[in-house]
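Hi there, hope your week has been kind to you so far. For a while now I've been wondering how a particular protein folds. I'm sending you its amino acid sequence along with the backbone structure tokens. Could you read through the record and tell me how the tokens relate to the sequence? Take your time with it, there's no hurry, and the full record follows here.
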Amino acid sequence: MNKHIYKGWLATLLVLFALTGCSVVSAFSPTVGPTNTPEPTQTPAPTFTPTPTEIPFYLNATVWNSDLEVPILIYHEFVPNYMKTDATKMRLADFENEIQAFYDNGYSLISLKEWINGTFTLPEGKKPLIITIDDLWFGNQIFINDDGTPNEYSGIGVLWRFNQEHPDFGFKAALFAINGDKYYPEKVVGDMFQAADGITWNTPSWRIKLGNTIAWAVDHGLEVYNHTLHHYFYWTTSTNAVIKSELSENDYTLRDFLTEADRSDVIAKLDNIIALPQGLWPDSYSGKQIVMDYKNPEGKPVMAIMEAYNMDAARLTPSIFSGNLDTNHIARITASRFMTQFIIDHKDQVPTMMACKLGPLEASQASDLNVIQAAIQTAVSAQACPEGIYNVNGNVFIAKAGNVTLYKANTDAAVPAQPTPTPTATP
């Protein structure tokens, strides 16, 4: 081939490749090694902190029917099982059988004071029951061992052990004390409570033992009240001076026991409720007025006056919200096998505690009474919760006839509310 023709052909070919954007290595070019092209620098992806899922905050409320009634039982002494139960003494085994029957039928204990002032509450699904014990202080009612537990041969000891096994039953009782007619035991031998030397009450140390026992009772949620100094059987016909003295001296004597035991700190926790001797009022109008107008040594007015009813007068006691509770005439029934059966037979008349969650709302609003009131109104209007008596962290509201009103604000330290998380669906 003519070299001039070849060179022209080659030039034409190179021009065509250049115009088409192709890259060509000439077959006539020397062989070269591969060219290392640097990889582009990777920019790291930004790290994002996930926004935590906000847990809705709810307040737990308990709800009662406004027509709530409660059984209030009177016990007296407790005796060993080889003895017999009668109107004022109950075998320890019979007492344990009774509280087991109450528990099995959905009852749990509430405070007498909280029943009267309307701040009572219970675990969901429970019915209220109040236990009172009259004629304290016998060792078979309450006696504290050296290890700080109530003795097993005392009624309070039986109640204590039962509560250890069934915490949802509660450990509450109202103790109506007669502080002027007996000595208090200082030791227990077998199932018998005795003086320090086992023969005579010749030392004053029983007073300190009793003061410590009273303090233990109050420290552990039991309530101590007034049942007069001597429980005179001629109480109904006593003079006004005797009636007043029986009440006031009983209170002062109780405070003396606490002071001698170096537990005067307990005195500020004592309230003023009276149980009438034999459940009977003084005959005279002026005598009745002395009882109703009585103030304790700290100036607290009488909160309630307890009467007593026996086997022919079985009844339940209404709540303060029913409009039928007369705090000067509070019904109690004497504990017995008959009364236990009465309480079980009438359990459907005793409403069960319900639970309701209020919210969602801000955690900072948990103690705002206006917010709580509005939350109840919303829950009731939406039929998510029923009308009734609401207890929210000790604040009590009445939801009735479409309205919600504050009945009693919690004046104690607020109980921190806990957030209730909304259940998350499993993917």
About this structure: Residues 63 and 354 are 5 Å apart (CA to CA). The domain at 72-349 is CATH 3.20.20.370 (TIM Barrel). The radius of gyration is 39 Å.
